[in-house]
Write a structure and sequence with these properties.
heterodimer, A: about 160 residues, Alpha-Beta Plaits, 2 domains, three-stranded antiparallel beta sheet, B: about 120 residues, mainly alpha, about 65% helix, about 0% strand, elongated
Chain lengths: ~160, ~120
């Protein structure tokens, strides 16, 4: 019964929060209308959600966001220095293959987005079987180090969150 | 006073990173290296302006604004997709499969592997 009413409880909460934030006012009217949208939209789109991604460790999501934000700020400065001061003859752009232990499509999507949003790396392609991701690095004299960084900092945490 | 300094500092920092990102578009030599510059402009460049705006409205206008959080959320959802589309177009137009590192699996990269079916789930 509850499952039927709320096919996707996390989406319901997200939609309500987004609606209130878009209205920019925490009033009962907006919350109620947000809830109505939050219940109706998952119900209408339930057919397009064949399997729900499960968040195994919701608290670790906050830790992950903080780590990514810190890395974004840090690598912004690194990339800014490369763009401004490094002689182009010393620049070592490289394609790097990162083998994936993640299997859930949602987790791989978040990982690819994280790699792109941290300056200095862009995720370009996935292998046809979904077990490796192709990353382009702006400056990577040590490509194995990039792979280890991505696996240790992001992938291991996403594995705890999603799988 | 202290808040005015913080807001101004954030705005200046965001402007500097936006400028560096644009300068990277001119200076960097190839398409793929140029692709790295705009990701920087949207993260710290956009982020600095948004944080400054939140502080400004909370401190000086006496009301809390959530629109900045939404802009951040939508930027983080859409920016990787545009970057990925540009990268894929570049792979199709310029690179050959032999120039890329091997996948380490028995299949090729999805851009070239014609038998790849994007709707198929990875097992697991």
């Amino acid at each position: 019964m509850l499952r039927k009413l709320f096919p996707h409880p996390v989406l319901t909460l997200t939609l309500t929060a987004v609606w209130v934030a878009l209205m920019n006012e925490l009033s009962p009217g907006h919350v109620v209308f947000g809830l109505i949208l939050g219940i109706l939209i998952p119900w209408i789109t339930a057919a397009y959600w064949p399997d729900r991604p499960r968040l195994r460790a919701p608290l670790k999501v906050a830790a992950y966001i903080l780590i990514v934000l810190y890395d974004i700020v840090k690598s912004n400065f690194i990339v800014a220095r490369i763009v401004l001061f490094m002689p182009l003859s010393q620049l070592r752009p490289a394609w790097v293959t990162v083998p994936l232990d993640l299997r859930s499509p949602e987790a791989i999507t978040v990982l690819a987005g994280t790699i792109t949003m941290t300056p200095g790396t862009v995720s370009a392609d996935l292998s046809a079987c979904g077990r490796a991701i192709l990353v382009h690095c702006l400056h990577a004299p040590d490509s194995q180090g990039v792979v280890n960084d991505i696996k240790a900092r992001y992938e291991s945490r996403l594995k705890e969150i999603f799988e | 006073m202290i808040w005015e300094i913080i807001v101004s500092a954030l705005l200046v920092m965001a402007g500097v990173f936006g400028l560096v990102g644009s300068f990277g578009l001119i200076r960097l030599p190839t398409t793929m290296t140029r692709l790295h510059a705009p990701t920087k402009a949207t993260t710290l460049g956009g982020g600095g302006v948004l944080v400054a705006s939140m502080i400004y409205f909370a401190v000086f206008m006496d009301h809390y604004s959530f629109h900045e959080l939404m802009i951040t959320l939508f930027l983080f959802l859409t920016a990787p997709i545009t970057a990925n589309l540009i990268a894929k177009a570049y792979l199709h137009r310029t690179e050959r499969p032999e120039d890329l590192p091997p996948t380490g699996t028995d299949r090729g990269w999805a851009t070239y592997d014609a038998s790849a079916d994007p709707s198929r789930r990875t097992d697991g």
